[in-house]
Amino acid sequence: MFGGILALIALAAFFGLILGLAAIVFKVESSPIVEQIDALLPQTQCGQCSFAGCRPYAEAIAAGDAPINLCPPGGENTVQALADLLDVEVLPLEEEENADLGPMVAIIIEDTCIGCTLCIQACPVDAILGAAKQMHTVIESECTGCELCVAPCPVDCIEMVPVKQTLKSWRWPVPQYTVNNEAAASIFATVDQALAENTRP
Amino acid sequence: MSQSLSQTVSNTIKDSLHQLRSFHGGIKLKGKKSLSVQHPITSSEIPKEIVLPLSQHIGVPAEPVVKVGDKVLKGQLLGHAEGPVSAPVHASSSGTVTAIEERLVPHPSGLSALCVIIETDGYDQWQACTPLIGDHDHSHQSIETLGIEQITQQIANAGIVGLGGALYPSAAKLQTAEKMKTGTLIINAAECEPYITCDDALMRSRPEEIILGILLIKKVVGAKKCLIGIEDNKPEAYETLQKTIRGYERTLSSHSEAIIEVIQVPTIYPAGGEKQLIQMLTGKEVPTQGLPMDIGMICHNITTAAAVYQAVYRGEPLVSRIVTVTGGAVKEPQNMEVALGTTIRDVLNQAGLYEDKIDKIIMGGPMMGFALPAIDTPVTKATNCLLVSEPGELATPPPAMPCIRCGRCADSCPMSLLPQQMYWYAKARDLEKAQDYNIFDCIECGCCSYVCPSNIPLVQYFRYAKTEIWDDERERNKANIARERHEFRQERLEKARLAKAEAARLRKEKLAKKKAEDKKKAEQNAASGETKTPPSQSDLIKEAIARSKAKKAQQQTHRKNTENLTEAQQKQINSVNQRRRERNKLSQTESNDGDEQD
């Protein structure tokens, strides 16, 4: 009996050692939840969620300090994706009044620009080019449309315009799916009638 | 002679014995091809204005190389290819460039794209062309002597793209095929969509050009075997091709093997799909999300072969194409050779329309074409057919009913997909799930929508889902770039902050060091017994004041023009000052604006 217990203890120690070593050697680097949330956010760095950029918001969501519906640029799709990831309920998006204008991009009216560099300092993705007392310009392909450069401009020379649609970026519209309920109803009515006739005594 | 006869017989036997496999699904459609195929190919008139989009292909748009006001000749380069997957654009008639601007292009979106606009001079004068082989030298040797690189370059320079509808730059496709050591060349002559007959007409009227073009392509890709697949509803074209190939083979010295096989395939829509044709001819299936090259094959359209001939034997770039103009509302349905850039309105006017009968104007066939958003758009390399239907000719689907899960769409799908599943997911915008059901294998043939008893616009849903997925992908890429840039900026700002703090620390250290040194010196002085005390604060200030006074005095001596004035001058100055003061007072009271003082 004593021998049996000893053998079992030895086995447990042996496998415990193997498992312990395997856990260290074959450690799977799972991407932390913050990274996963951050990957779903649109990275406009606009701060509309009241956090200082997308990553701080992701951190706040991960810590449970912020709801998932604070990101207007991401729209419903982002809320849906976040809900799927975190397995929480979908919340309606906190709507902004100009939310449905589609993606926007900033342009600088170059005649008016005085070269103050304030917008350059405000841009979270370094998408504005220029130097002191030189005209500035926005690199359109890098602009995220966060509008952070609009407020600091002392001469109001920055405008937000919708992103121009090209043949490449064009999307097919949702098909006009009009279920013909009347037709369906009439079919069901006929079926009902036939059934009623059949069941007549 | 007897040898060639036996060869012919053996080939005929081989043809009849060629085991045809069939592909999954497909539907039988009414051909309606006899409308437009009765007459020989006509030529369109040179229009007054030509509009040539710089993007008539898949890939990066061409970069314009002409300026407004330039005189151009027919065949002259207007835009050169940008990057490896791009194609150049050439002038399709001679004239003057009047604008390079955004114009409406034939696309379901109804959007504009950059075009070169030419006002034609009516002479239609070609530029000097540089063919690789003389136009009448149809010998096999001349093809053999050409280098592969040479032919590919000529094809690239001619702006040839896949004219079956894919519009992929042919030279790029050939280069990949050459590298991948493709064994079989498939030439697509099936032309399975109803109404369209442009390939049929081309095969009947220019078989020689097609065969030579195919031989050139075969040479480039190094294929051992070449199969032409043609639907059995085009017996005349089949015969013509066969005859031409036999005639060509007779000129060869060796008769070891048939150079090109023409094989008739049953008329089932969509037999003209690249993957379906390959499956019918060889029995091999192109893997999901793959290309024919993955199974050692390459597929080209018969019209592309003819364009290759023109580029190599005549040195002519792709500046025109054959367009089928057909439909119930067209007075004279026909195949017309149209200069690219001619507006669709001009082409239709030339064929004549019953204006009171026009229902829809469609570019492409009734299955895969789209209703043109505008008629004043140009004919491009993609325009194979213009279909003007009369009311009742093309059924407008009645309103959709709910899906009853009958599974007919899955039965008809030539790609063996599950349209009903993809439809649910596309409708719910569950794009990931739709991709799991291989939505990107969908060739958008429209069989599923055609057979659906509930009239659900299935293929429209798949197109919608595909573009949505692409859009999401673009957004994701953009977000990743934005994240990178933002992180880089954060890092840069952090670095700058640290550098600043470091500099401040160094300055402080230096100051502290200096102070310590001063203190040490003072102590030393005190220790050595000298009575010289460090100057007190007030002494230092006094010294500074004295210095500044001296400096001022020095400066004042320089103001020679206001010093040592005579009495008269002084008086004059005083009076001027007086007047100025008075005026200032006046203007101040008038406008109450201090800024206006001068």
Structure at a glance:
Chain A is mainly alpha-helical and about 200 residues long.
What does this protein structure show overall?
The complex is a heterodimer of chains A (201) and B (598). With 201 residues, chain A is mainly alpha-helical. Among the domains of chain A are: 33-86, Electron transport complex subunit B, putative Fe-S cluster (3-methyladenine DNA Glycosylase II, Chain A, domain 3), CATH 1.10.15.40; 102-165, Alpha-Beta Plaits. Chain A has six helices and four strands, in the order ααααβαβββα. Chain A has helices spanning 2-25, 33-40, 54-63, 75-86, 118-122, 181-198; strands spanning 104-108, 128-129, 137-138, 158-162. Chain A has a two-stranded antiparallel sheet with strand order 1-4. A two-stranded antiparallel ribbon of chain A has the order 2-3. In chain A, a hairpin with a 7-residue loop joins strand 2 and strand 3 (137-138). In chain A, helix 2 packs across helix 3. The longest helix of chain A is centred in the first third of the chain and has 24 residues, at 2-25. Chain A is flat and about 95 Å long. The N and C termini of chain A lie far apart (83 Å). Chain B has 598 residues and is α/β, with parallel strands linked by helices. Among the domains of chain B are: 1-30 and 138-315, Rossmann fold (3-Layer(aba) Sandwich); 415-520. Chain B is built from 17 helices and 17 strands. Chain B has a six-stranded mixed β-sheet with strand order 1-14-13-17-15-16, with helices on both faces. Chain B has a four-stranded antiparallel β-sheet with strand order 2-8-7-4, with no helix packed on it. In chain B, a hairpin with a 7-residue loop joins strand 7 (95-104) and strand 8 (112-120). Chain B is elongated, with a radius of gyration of 39 Å. The A-B interface holds A 38, 41-45, 53-54, 77, 124-127, 142, 144, 165-167, 169-180, 183-184 and B 55, 105, 107-109, 111, 113, 398-402, 427, 429, 456-457, 460-461, 463-464, 466-468, 470-472, 474-475, 478-483, 485-486, 488-489.
